[in-house]
Design goal:
Pfam families: SBP_bac_5 (PF00496). Keywords: Membrane, Signal, Transmembrane, Transmembrane helix, Transport. It contains 14 helices and 19 strands.
């Protein structure tokens, strides 16, 4: 699949959370566990893992004999050092600190034994280090000398020392990433010897490259392009169940962990009445029909339908309807009177309800959504100023709190911990601007208590009930207003590549959410056998076709899930 529309924020795995960077890390760095095609943990560095009877100690037995790409042995000490750094260093914990928040200690008792002790029993320990949506294990001998200045480490010395199905040999920001296959990869040799992820400024340009044969695969075309490409018999077109959401974030109270207010958000957004009015004035079904051409599901809960065990909807009668009259009514009752220009005024600050809506400059879905939102909100007396921003500018504004409303999207893997974690108080930034990876400056004590509780609940039905309570809190807060879960639309050339799409479609023809890890690994020329379960059965140099290079599209656009993403990105 393509490097995601969110692009690459940094090649530093301790800091990155854009999908493009995470897809790269999933290809070049190992993890303790892999995920099978059904989202269940499997072996990777670890051959086995055993919890103690009290579920407070997990013992991982690591494979012996694996080597980093520079020839140094991979040992349990690399894993222990990586996890301990994230646990003890605020900068190192920027991206993945929430995944180890319940870890008490991590030790390597010998070269192949890793022991993780938790403060309380933790249900998802084996999901903490998985490809892409978990923690990548890095080589201690490379990273330890750089740990003191971690926030400045660019990790751009090539080839990057790692271990995975691929080795990153070259990277040019907003242009391309080049990879060589790891022919000795323990989970199977890649079907191509080389891979290039190429950047395009628009999906139109990427589609043209696909049609001409310059590209073999694009993950995430828009619905209009998808329908047009379905008529081309040389292309495979596939829809995946949505594994992420697209919506609008509301800057209700940007602040640091100590409570220091930051940013330039409109003060009226701190009023839940105004936030509810914005939600009431949003017709999610129309957005699915018009923006997605029906290729998606109207949004409500925080976790997407790709993982039905966590998916949640409000009870009957509790879902926020599309009701412009009701939105206007509650604003009237709260004292938001209209001026001569039809724009309401905040009764507390005296400021008119003129709000900035940040959208991504290269995301057609954002543009479509913003047009509808502008019309609906102006009907109820709220004026929107659309600000078209680059991915980097938008995220810079987010971290500083210099925004009112932002279009956003996140995706998630089968364990919801990370996505739930970015709504906890612990992800608020420090006063100096470091640490944390907050989504919308949300912080709620009851939510945090439930977050800790779900981590320690091993019965999945009971855990799902707790996760549902958390989603209900987020839904009521109206800080992240979920518009829809877009189907991911994949297109591949059948004459140059096979094996990219894994799993079986359901009765509606929808495929399960794809993972770049397995898709890239199993991709092979059509006449070749896809990568097998062991390195001995791989393809190697005999798989070179048209230069032996698998080209994938990197389409610019979409804000980020780990996660930040464009519509349809992230696993």
């Amino acid at each position: 699949m393509k490097m995601s529309g969110s692009g690459v924020d940094t090649l530093n795995p301790f800091l990155a959370f854009f999908n493009g960077a995470l897809d790269i890390f999933g290809s070049i760095y190992p993890t303790l566990n892999s995920l099978d095609e059904n989202g269940k943990p499997g072996p990777y560095l670890a051959e086995s893992w055993t919890p103690s009877e009290d579920k407070l100690t997990w013992t991982f037995k690591l494979r012996d004999g694996l080597k980093w790409s520079d020839g140094k042995p991979i040992t349990a000490e690399d894993a222990a050092w990586t996890l301990n750094l994230i646990m003890t260093d605020a900068v190192a914990g920027t991206a993945n600190g929430s995944l180890v928040s319940n870890f008490e200690s991590v030790t390597a008792t010998d070269a192949t034994t890793l022991v993780i002790k938790t403060k309380a029993p933790q249900a998802n320990v084996i999901y903490a280090s998985i490809p892409i949506s978990g923690i990548p294990i890095v080589p201690k001998h490379i990273w330890e000398p750089q740990a003191k200045n971690l926030k400045d480490v660019k990790n751009d010395t090539f080839p990057v020392v790692g271990y995975g199905p691929w080795t990153l040999t070259e990277y040019k920001p907003e242009q391309y990433a080049k990879f060589d296959a790891n022919k000795d990869f323990i989970l199977g040799r890649p079907g191509f010897d080389h891979m290039i992820q190429q950047s395009f400024k628009s999906t139109d340009a990427a589609v043209a490259a696909l049609r001409s044969g310059q590209l073999d695969y694009i993950n995430g075309v828009n619905p209009t392009q998808f329908k047009a490409l379905q008529t081309d018999k040389s292309l495979l077109t596939v829809q995946e169940v949505g594994n992420g959401w697209t919506g609008v974030e509301v800057n209700h109270n940007a602040r640091t962990r100590t409570g220091k207010k930051i940013g330039t958000g409109h003060p009226a957004l701190g009023d839940p009445v105004l936030r509810r009015a914005i939600s009431l004035a949003t017709d999610r079904k129309t957005l699915v029909a018009k923006v997605l051409d029906g290729m998606g599901v109207a949004g409500s809960g925080y976790l997407p339908p790709a993982w039905p065990q966590w998916s949640w909807k409000p009870d009957a009668g509790q879902e926020t309807p599309f009701d412009l009259a009701q939105a206007a009514k509650i604003l009237d009752e709260a004292g938001y009177t209209k001026g001569d220009d039809g724009v309401r005024v905040d009764p507390k600050s005296g400021r008119p309800l003129e709000l900035r809506l940040g959208i991504h400059s290269d995301d057609t879905a954002d543009a479509g959504i913003s047009t509808y939102l502008k019309g609906w909100l102006e009907t109820i007396g709220v004026k929107l100023k659309i600000q078209t921003l680059s991915m980097s500018a938008l995220n810079s504004d987010l971290a500083k709190g210099d925004w009112d409303l932002l279009m956003d999207g996140w995706t998630t893997g089968p364990d919801p911990t990370y996505l739930l974690g970015i709504q906890t108080c612990a992800t608020l930034p420090k006063d100096d601007g470091t640490g944390g990876n907050t989504d919308a400056f949300f912080c709620d004590k009851a939510y945090d208590e439930l977050f800790d509780k779900q981590l320690t609940t091993f019965d999945q039905n009971e855990r799902a009930k707790i996760v549902a309570e958390m989603q209900a809190i987020l839904y009521k807060a109206d800080v992240d207003q979920i518009h829809f879960y877009a189907n991911t639309l994949d297109v591949a050339r059948t004459d140059t590549v096979s094996g990219l799409i894994t799993g079986q479609p359901d009765a509606q023809g929808m495929y399960p959410a794809q993972t770049a890890f397995w898709s890239y690994l199993k991709a092979a020329p059509p006449a070749a056998k896809p990568a097998a379960a062991s390195a001995e059965e791989g393809g190697g140099g005999t798989l070179w076709i048209a230069g032996g290079v698998l080209l994938l599209a990197l389409v610019g656009g979409g804000i980020v899930l780990k996660r930040r993403s464009g519509a349809g990105d992230r696993e």
